[in-house]
Write a structure and sequence with these properties.
Elements: E1 2-5, H1 12-19, E2 22-27, E3 30-36, E4 44-52, E5 55-63, E6 77-78, H2 82-96
Antiparallel strand pairs: 1-5, 2-3, 3-4, 4-5, 5-6
């Protein structure tokens, strides 16, 4: 699920911390974030976030398990549905107060 949060006052590091996500990789202006749902590595929410000035563009999904084959990124992931929508809404609600008015 893709969505955008506009006019934020905080940088991506502060945003990730506030949302309970950990930055696991960065590439250019894209950040790779995860939030575990249990004490294990999976399942976990996984977001690719691009920062464009004061805006963050999220691409969010749920990783159900780690990739099946070494060297691949293929995994059992959910990109739509109520669980993803709830997490998207949670992120938007938390960041609502961080917006520049």
């Amino acid at each position: 699920m893709d969505f955008e949060i506009k006019n934020l006052q905080k940088n991506i590091v502060a945003v990730a911390r506030e949302l309970g996500y950990v930055i696991i990789d960065t590439s250019g202006n894209e950040y790779n974030l995860v939030r575990k749902l249990t004490g294990q590595n999976y399942p976990r929410f996984h977001a690719y976030v691009k920062q464009n000035s004061q805006n963050l563009i999220f691409s969010l999904h749920l990783d159900q398990k780690k990739p099946s084959y070494e060297g691949t990124h293929a995994h059992s992931g959910e990109y739509f549905g109520p669980v993803i929508e709830e997490e998207s809404d949670r992120i938007k609600q938390i960041l609502q107060d961080d917006k520049i008015q």
